[in-house]
Design goal:
This protein is 50% helix and 11% strand. With 163 residues, it is mainly alpha-helical.
Amino acid sequence: MFLHNSSSKLDNHLTHPDWHLTSDHIPFTITIPISEEHINSRKRLIIKDSEKETSFIKDLISSIRNFHTFNLSDKKGLERVVIKFTKVVKCTWEKNSKFVNITKHSKSWWDTSYSRDLERYRLTRSLEDWKSFQKTVKTMKCSFFNLKIQKITNKKMKSPKNS
């Protein structure tokens, strides 16, 4: 058994000479502490087809229209425009996006309409609302993942074959 000798957490082994039975080897055991994995990160997000997405695009377009790019003749001028563009995109993104927590339980297929349906069920507690919610989720999950599979398939078909 090889153990990391500078780690007090992993240098926790026991020998069991009375466990060897007919073998001439002595069993060892080691206790390895395993903590529960907790993935929690925050990122900025704009929900697709939302008012914030429309606002982001409009703000970005109006800001870019004010750029003076008609006389770009040297590298420094181009770098200034690129830096300005980067700052505009960053500021516009921060203005229109919101922070969301991404956890191991996050669902990329979830839609705000599901939240409304779920809230309706929670208010009424009716079996019909629950069944309706479940059916909607099942249908939309299926559609979402079928679309993902289709995109991957199309991407692979378009890429050149390796010979």
